[in-house]
Design brief:
8 strands, Nucleotide-diphossugar_trans, 45% helix, Spore Coat Polysaccharide Biosynthesis Protein SpsA, Chain A, Glycosyltransferase, eight-stranded mixed β-sheet, alpha/beta, 2 domains
């Protein structure tokens, strides 16, 4: 019998009115396959002006509004969460059907945190190759990214002070503090992440940008400077 545990799914959003209903309806259906009373969905809106919050409200347990910024929004969601396990999920990412069973395995493990493998939508072979490298790199380094559906025991998250209040690389930064606590619990059943970003800006351009930002972060450049680089590159690609 699966281990009973309580899960808080925290979804930071900004201008997701077109897709948020479908995302949350899918998540609701998944959680209803377990003990609904022990799980919750918290949407944290960063001040959207397209009605995202009102669209989300019927499909989740709670909507809160915070300052914009993914780290700030995720911390705000965690502050009101009641679950033993906090799962931080991007609005364009879907959990696998086996997610509750795999998270129940995590709940009885000694690990403090973990992540899923990832698969990108679309039939392009290149997307499968990109996902393979993302998953392989994550297993080798013990570093996860937000696209992989990171989950953390609430007690550990609170002890570490949550995500650093930085505009970029908050996922990589917290992994650096989580790794001394435990290696990540890796779930091979993949989350499905929308490839719209890769399609819009071009797969190779996006790969190069992500690796350039990661390399410069490891060299010590500030997240603020890297956020400016990211925004400038995205604007130039539009």
């Amino acid at each position: 019998m699966p281990q009973r545990f309580s899960l808080s799914v925290i979804v930071p959003v900004w201008r997701e009115a077109e897709t948020i209903e479908a995302t949350l309806a899918s998540l609701q259906a998944l959680l209803s396959s377990g003990d609904e009373q022990r799980h919750e969905i918290i949407v944290v809106d960063g001040g959207s002006d397209d009605g995202t919050a009102s669209q989300a409200r019927p499909f989740c347990d709670r909507v809160i509004v915070s300052e914009p910024g993914r780290a700030v929004q995720m911390n705000a969601g965690a502050a009101v969460a009641s679950g033993d396990v906090l799962l931080f999920l991007h609005a364009d990412t879907r959990l696998p059907a086996s997610a509750l069973d795999r998270l129940a395995d995590f709940a009885v493990s000694p690990a403090a945190w973990g992540r899923f493998d990832v698969r990108l939508t679309g039939n392009r072979r290149l997307f499968r190759v990109i996902a393979w490298f993302m998953n392989r790199r994550s297993r080798l380094t013990g570093i996860a990214t937000g696209d992989q559906g990171m989950f953390i025991r609430r007690s550990v998250f609170e002890a570490l002070g949550g995500f650093a209040r930085i505009p970029l690389m908050e996922d990589v930064e917290i992994c650096g503090r989580l790794k001394p606590v435990s290696r990540p619990f890796c779930i091979s059943d993949p989350v499905i992440t929308d490839s719209r970003r890769w399609q819009k800006h071009g797969p190779w351009r996006t790969v190069f940008l992500m690796w350039r930002i990661r390399w410069r972060y490891w060299r010590g450049e500030s997240p603020e400077a890297l956020a400016k680089l990211y925004r400038a590159d995205v604007r130039n690609a539009d």
